[in-house]
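Sat 14:20. Reprocessing the chain from the morning session after the first attempt stalled halfway. Input below, unchanged.
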Amino acid sequence: MVVEAYKHKKFIDSSTGKKTDLMIYKDVNPTKKAATKQFKANLAQSDKVAKTLSGDKLTAYLTEQNQKNADYAQKKWQTMNNSLIVHSNKLAPVTKSKLTFNK
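Finished this time. Tokens:
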């Protein structure tokens, strides 16, 4: 039987045998919510400033704000991905293969 783990909020941690939260609820969704909240705040602030600018100054300002948001998002998602990798390795540790290709 195939189980689609992403549809369940809890699953069994193979290393402990205990129920644990699915990573999307524990790591992904909170990161997404925090980033969305920060982007909305940044947008509201930059819109206020942008209304006072025009021409090249406006272009430069908006480019700068865009880069700040991109840097923030990249840092936030890299941190989350690192956490997911560590958590995944704990759930399914990499083991040395016992396969050999000797004749």
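The CA atoms of residues 7 and 92 lie 19 Å apart.
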